[in-house]
Structure formats: C-alpha cells, structure tokens
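Dear colleague,

Thank you for sharing your sequence with our group. We've completed the structure prediction you requested, and as agreed, I am returning the results in plain text so they can be pasted directly into your records. Please verify that the sequence below matches your submission; if there's any discrepancy, let me know and we will rerun it promptly.
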Amino acid sequence: MLVRIIGLGPGDPALLTIGSLDALRSIGRAVLLLAPPEMVKYLKTHRVEIVNRETEDAELIVRGSREHVERFVADLKEADIALGVLGNPMSDFAGLPILLHALERRGAKTQIVPGMPHATLSAALNMPLVPLPPSSAHHTWDELVEIMARLRLSCPWDREQTHRTLIPYLIEEAYEVVEAIEYNNEAGLCEELGDLLLQIVFHSQLATETGRFSVADVIDALSNKMIRRHPHVFGDAVIEDVDAQWKNWEQLKAQEATGKARASRLDGIPRALGALQRGQRMQEKAARVGFDWPGPKEVIDKLSEELGELAAARRQRQDDPRVREELGDVFFTLVNLTRALGIDAETAMREANEKFYRRFSFMERHATRQGRDLTEMSLDELEELWQLAKIEAA
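Please find the predicted structure tokens below.
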C-alpha cells in the first residue's frame, strides 16, 4: 500500500501546484482533510475520486492527536491512496511525524508531495489574510516569500519566467554584488544582496509551484550541509589549520551522494565559470591531492617553456591550431602562477581591465580637451598620451 501525503496549498484551486495535482491524479483516490468545497469540486472535475469529503476527526488528525491518527491509519484499505492536507505537509501538518510512524508500523510505503505553505496563504488574490505592510515598514522573511508568490500570481512578466529564463538575471545580480564589494559601496552592496536573494526566492517559488521543493527545503539543505561539513564546529572533531580543514572538507564532500556520483574530483566545478576562475578552481582541487608545483620559481620556469612552445608554433604557421592550444597553455600556466603567489586570477584580471579602462578613458578626455580624436593621432602621439595616463590615471 502506498500513501501519498500531498499539500493542497491554501485551499484555493488556483493555488494548487502542478506537482500536487499530478500526484493526486496518478493515484486517483484521495482522502481530503479540511479541504474547502471548491477544492473538492475542482479535484472531482480532474478525475480524482474523493473517498471521504472529510473524516469526523480531521482537525484532530491535522493537529497530531495520536489516538485519532492511529485510528485513521487502521481504517485505511489495502490500496494506494492520497491524503490531501492544506498547506505544505512538511511545515503545516503537525500530525505528520505521528502519521508516518503509524504507516511504517502498518507496512505502508509513503511519499510526501509539498504544496504552497501557509506562509504564502495570503497570496490568494481575492481575500489576502495578511495585508502587506507599507513600503516604509520592516518586512519579515515570510512576507518576502509572500511577495514573490503574489508576483507570480498577478504580474504578467513574473508569471512567464522559468528557471532557464532567469539564468541571465541570476548571473547579472551576482556580478553586481561583486562590483559593489570591489568599489566599497556599502549601500549598494545591501541593495545588490537583496536582488541576489530575490533570485533565490524566485527559483524556490517556481519549484514550489510544481511540487519539487520549497524555500524551506533550500534552507534545510544548506543548513544540514554546513553542519555536516564542519564537524570541528558542530561536533567534536579537531582540525589544526586551514590546510587540514580543506582536506577534511573534500573527504566529507566525497562521502555525500553528489560526491559519490562524480567520476572525477574536478567534477562539480561549473563549466559556465569564467575560464580563468574555472582554471584556478581545477588547479586548487588538484593541489589538494599533492599535484602541484613546489613554488612560484618552478611555475615561472614552466611559463618560459610554454612561451617558447608558443613561439615555435607561430613560426610554423600563424593560423596553425597549435598556436591557440599553446596560447591556452600560457594562460593556464599564468593562472598557476597567480595561485602560487596567493592571488586570485579572476580578480587580478578584473583589476587590470579597470586600470586599462581608467587610462584609456583619460586618453579620450585629454584628446577631446585638445579638440582632437584618438583616431587622428599617430602611434607615437598615442604612446605619449598613454604614458601621461599612467601618471594621471594610475
């Protein structure tokens, strides 16, 4: 016997997630606890047989009365059935632990399908139960989740979004956080962190609507991971230094389900990372097993070797594919050098880009003040202006 415990959301059929509806229809028979008449009618039109409109003790079952839960389980037939409860079973069903234990003793298999939690109950458009405070008021975490739910219901743009369409915004917001940090913009950092947090809440809301997971699951997964990976903080393990912590971190990650599924230690580094950043992350992981250069001197020697191979490839043919390959090796070795010097390659490159931007912009402004354009200047004049920019716009 399979008992599928399914979240019905706030009770409005418009807020029933696709995942919950699919889970109810796949079994076809359901007991509903405290579901309003419109929900019952809606499910019947979707070919779900309602075995019981409500049990007499539905409220006591939801509240977690052991006596009533045990009686409910004992009365179940030996056939697969769905149990629909308001909200999200994992957060809004106090009787869930008692029910799961009772079903286990009976030998039944169980599945839990989350629904929209009561934190977003007031997202219903017609009768919001918790009015949003004015824009000048302080807001809670629950209100942020509710705001996102309302946006999904009533904003045309938000309704059209998917996990995939949000990717560019997620990346952009992360870079804006980095920019605020690098420019020491504290007020901007606060705002940009909020924009990045919105992306997390947005993706979580999309998953909630299809019954996959909720923002509560995201928080639980993160918290459990941090506790599991820091036994020296939350347990009795002893770690002497940062190097020992890294080794322990890698060992713990390898024991997790995602770690066991990886064919290589280098798996898990996103391919979408910038090339410099991904190269440095791969080198760091390789170094943790001892595959590394002794120090910067050896890396510099390797860099000279790679430059020699690049020059040799260019002498053969300028358009030889080996030229690009050898140039890639030069970049990869440079990343190794930055790591050996304790420098982040991506940060160093961003700072070099900004320095060039300052100096070139100075050249443009200086030329404009003289009533000239850079395109009109000779190479010697441009070089002279560049040397001035190095002094004035360092």
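Summary note from our side: The chain is about 60% helix and 5% strand.

Kind regards,
the structure core
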